[in-house]
Amino acid sequence: MKTKKLINAGDNAVDEMLEGILCAHPDHLYAVDGMPRAIVARHGPRQGKVGLVIGGGSGHEPTFLGFVGKGLADAAAVGNVFASPPPDPIIACATAANGGAGVLFMYGNYAGDVMNFDMAAEMLAMDDIEVRTVLTTDDIASAPRSQRDKRRGVAGNVFIFKAAGAACDLGYSLDEVERVARHANTRTYTMGVALSPCSLPQTLKPNFAIGEGEMEIGMGIHGEPGVARGALESADQVADTLLYRILSEMQADAGDRVAVLVNSLGSTPLMELYILMRRVSQRLDAAGLAIHTSLVGNYCTSLEMAGASITLMHLDDELQRLIDHPCDCAMFKAR
Amino acid sequence: MKTKKLINAGDNAVDEMLEGILCAHPDHLYAVDGMPRAIVARHGPRQGKVGLVIGGGSGHEPTFLGFVGKGLADAAAVGNVFASPPPDPIIACATAANGGAGVLFMYGNYAGDVMNFDMAAEMLAMDDIEVRTVLTTDDIASAPRSQRDKRRGVAGNVFIFKAAGAACDLGYSLDEVERVARHANTRTYTMGVALSPCSLPQTLKPNFAIGEGEMEIGMGIHGEPGVARGALESADQVADTLLYRILSEMQADAGDRVAVLVNSLGSTPLMELYILMRRVSQRLDAAGLAIHTSLVGNYCTSLEMAGASITLMHLDDELQRLIDHPCDCAMFKAR
Hints:
Two copies of one chain form a homodimer. By secondary structure, chain A is an alpha/beta fold.
């Protein structure tokens, strides 16, 4: 049975999506000339500002493109569905984002992305554009705590990119932006649950199998295996399971503040996300933690996968200020 | 086979969702004391301003709650899933929204909503609160053109509410707000396509059946029958079908401006919506129409239904100004 999608030829889906994005958001975004997979913020890059370049595979919209805009990322390099962009659009993004103060690459920790962004960074060095890299590793289900640098980057990207983008916009130096980005990543924790697979536009076939009435805790955003598969539990039980792991790692003190993201993997509707949010709020209350800000919705998706993830960013004064900094992106506005 | 949902008891889904919404957005929203289904904008109602009250069944989030906020609606009355709110929360909303200049009720044209909102209006009249009502009827598939007042209100609500809410915020009189709201409704046209059913939290069973590889053009947001069922077509063909009907009714002249909404019915991801948006843009270009603004995403959903709708609002100078007016809602920000 083929998944039904409103697409034309599967191979054209990414490029046609990008055309649609530029039609819808011409005031926010443009593509580099001759490089349709390099999308730049119209009011992002400026002289003397560190440039922030993000990117990765398609299929996670509004990640990454949706977070390109004034106050957040300057450009995003766009790959095929669930596949890294090659070096060329990354280089084009960095060149467009460069304001003479260096460029920070930020993206989820996946082997293909690391290879291509590193290759781009080497080539940019030859053009005297200084590039630093901070990988996001917020998915706590993807490797043990002792191997944080092996973990994948998932929905927590939103907060991590946001903090770094705000630092860029505030005129921080490349050293300082890099420090903030690493700090933001270290204090961001995500864990998800998947209820159904998604399918790629080229195949229209489910990317994994899961039984009726089953869920998988900790599954990755490309269907990478999680940590436990079992019978679907109630929203409260699922939220408790995810938060138990997150709070154990976070080791916050009563009175600490967090930013919360309850994210749909694609087809899980707002009603279910807010039911999860209710339980998150109850658990945080019980732990004496204050919710400074919260996002609920589709922020980092896996096409039409059903499921959700919960992210906490453990705020301090600096991160709180950066998370509160205004941004104006095509698919995300804050303040 | 039961639909998998991240909920607790199905009967509690709406109330638990509302609790989650208030936890997530305490700066934007509150519930009237003792009336958890009456949700009010914290910075909405003010003395001398016409109050705008919207509402309807749950399951369409972010419609209606998400459009409650400064510059848009002052309050929303919340019903059970796909069911009208009873008069009590509507009355509570109107009382909270009342600034002494009258209250406008706006909601989609469904029999249950009409009955309950009308009953509320009668009771408010006894308290000397003047209420007017404008029904939205943007779903052009739901009745012939000669019976516009029989049509249902669907995703075009976003633009229609937005225009009326801006008029309220700008201090228009009740007469003028009512005129603007009717005018906005008259110039807004929506048509959708459904690819899969959704299921209610209480039953977890699909609300209609549709074959593998089939789509239904013109289906309503509660699964009301559409105008044609057939084999799934390409995104471009579907967009052409929907736009052909919309543009035939709209009868715009070259040079006219439109606001565009490409809306997911729930599980259809941004990738597909932007592929539709690309074609919408091509067709509008060909017709000589300019896109003044566009929204692409989940604005009026049917839980996890797959499918999409296209809305055009035929702008004039007044509507354009109102659509551009800033608003700050929990789930929708403009400017």
